[in-house]
Predict the structure.
Amino acid sequence: MQKFIIISENSLMKNIKTDKPAALLIGIGNSGRSDDGAGWLFADMAAHLPNLHCEYRYQLQIEDAELVSRYDRVFFADASHIALPDGFEIKRIKAAGHFYYSSHLQSPETILYLARMLYDRNPVAYTIALEGDNWSLGTEAGPVVKHHLQAAYTYFEKHLLPADDCPVSFIRT
């Protein structure tokens, strides 16, 4: 039995076993907490790119290991409270050596661990940290994080997404 998913507004279909996008981007955050929605905004910016499938999460969950296992490359975009050079950091990550029993503690590295242990898959993965400074209730991201989003997206689109394998880490300086 073939499985299909809708990939665009005009109802084109794809066979996910044979025609999957080359990479997955998971935007993590909460669009109702101002800059905490930066991961979702990053996914919105990248959603039009070919060979990239975007998903949105409030937080990562154990079930995301199955989704991640379907892709060769995975990107996790999320807001950061930490001051970062030029406002963003892109880092290659590896699977953790463990998982958490609580559903509220799953990191990208933990999801990679579960993908390896449960599905024997080990995709190349990166985190994209986006510096924010406004965590209050509200649906509008602030000007600082919007600037950081644009800089990170420009780098992502030009250097990271087209490459099969990228540097272990990149901190924009």
Observations:
- Residues 117 and 158 are 33 Å apart (CA to CA).
- The helical segments are 38-46, 64-68, 108-119, 143-160.
- The radius of gyration is 16 Å.
